[in-house]
Amino acid sequence: MNTNLFIAKTLWSGGSKKHPGGRNSFIAGLSVAVSMIVMIVAIAVSDGFKKEIREKAAGFSGSIILSAPGIEVVNSKYPIKGNLSYLDEISAIEGVTGLQSYSYSSGIMKSGDEIQGIVLKGVGAGYNLDFFKKSLSEGEVPNYADSLSRRSILVSSRLASMLSISAGDKVQIYFIGESVKARSCTVAGIYNAQLEEIDKALVIGNIDEVSRINGWLPGEVSGIEIGTRTFDESRGIATGIEEIIGKSTNEDDSDVSVTTVEELYPHLFDWLTLLDFNVLIVIILMVIVAGFNMISGLLIILFEKISMIGLLKSLGMRDGSIHRVFLYRALMIVIRGIAAGNAAALLLLWLQHRYGFLSLDPANYFVTQIPVHIDWIKLAVLNVVSAVLITLILYIPSVFIAGVEPDKSLRVK
User: Fold this and answer.
1) Which helix (H) or strand (E) holds 388?
2) How far is Cα 287 from Cα 214, in angstroms, rounded to an integer?
3) Between β-strands 202-206 and 114-123, what pairing exists: parallel, antiparallel or unpaired?
4) Phi, psi of 325 (to 5 degrees)
């Protein structure tokens, strides 16, 4: 064992029962803990928002959409074929979870004296309606495999509120084209997905009924939605789909464009990008605050131990070895602060996830309560990086140690 290092640690621990600088050590450790709480909560809330909004956006339209090129995805004038020759090849791509056809038609819904413009989205019997089942607030989700549900519809809670309708009510929908077509429909259920800009006019109906309203041939649809295993895979899968489409030589296939959900709802994902930037700023500020609070605490400890530093220098101990002693002490404070911060942050996040005591206005934030999602890999990386950065910052006080002169410091009592 290094003799000088042993002597230094003995002198450090033997000075008094109550460790000098204990109050300052506590404040420095508390600063690290608070900084860790802020960083962990900021990342978990940001990831929670991303997870919630991505799932909702993909629930409305799938992660990737195939539709007629050059026009909006929501169209009722330019159909594509629902049996494209390369669909099996797309289904075989790693990460693709399913393909679903849909059709759109715009109309006006009337209930009593109230009228509202709506977009009717037609889906088939095999369409995955789990997203709407989770968002259901009243009634039930129609089963379009049953012919009796042909004119059953699912409406948003905002639309239901504007028209003063409830599950089980009958409404009239008018579709205006070359001629006016009217349909009497039954509201089977009401959903509340809290994405007002998307769901306030969206009505779910039967795809066969929508195709008849549009005057389309059997098999013609507005587009095809493609689900992916994870959101992060969607861009790579979209690129692969474009390559498959580009290689197709079947002249019977419709021209289609590939649109990701990010491109479909840019305002939502731009907001999430801004949120990520804000979190990055918070992390940088918290690391700086924690680091410099640790420097302050360490410097105060160094001032209190100046006579010991002088004694160690007079015994021939190098500046680097002395600094390691104080760095070791500081690292213990940092580790305890990080551990306490993690424990407090995880407890706070669990309470929010379990009880949702912090609520939000869904009109502005798309959710009713602050969402949280813990990415354990990110959490581990954050802890390691924070510890490393704060440790590097703690090398700054070594300048003070180098400037201590043994003959003067030994006079300090």
Assistant:
1) helix 376-393
2) 59
3) parallel
4) -60, -50
Span 378-400, mean pLDDT?
81
Say if residues 355 and 181 touch (Cβ distance below 8 Å): no
In 5-151, beta strands by DSSP E: 64-67, 80-81, 96-111, 114-123, 136-139
The answer to whether 63 touches 227, Cβ cutoff 8 Å, is yes
In eight-state DSSP terms, residue 200 is S
Beta-carbon contacts of residue 248 (< 8 Å; ≥ 6 apart)? 85, 86
The Cα–Cα gap between 171 and 169 comes to 7
Find the angle CA(13)-CA(14)-CA(19) to the nearest 5 degrees: 55
How do residues 332-366 score in pLDDT, each as one tens digit? Answer: 888 888 999 999 999 999 999 888 888 877 777 77
| pLDDT number for residue 171 | 92
State residue 20's pLDDT score.
Answer: 47
183 phi, psi to nearest 5 deg: -135, 135
Can you spell out the DSSP letters for 339-374? HHHHHHHHHHHHHHHHH--SB--HHHHSSSB-----
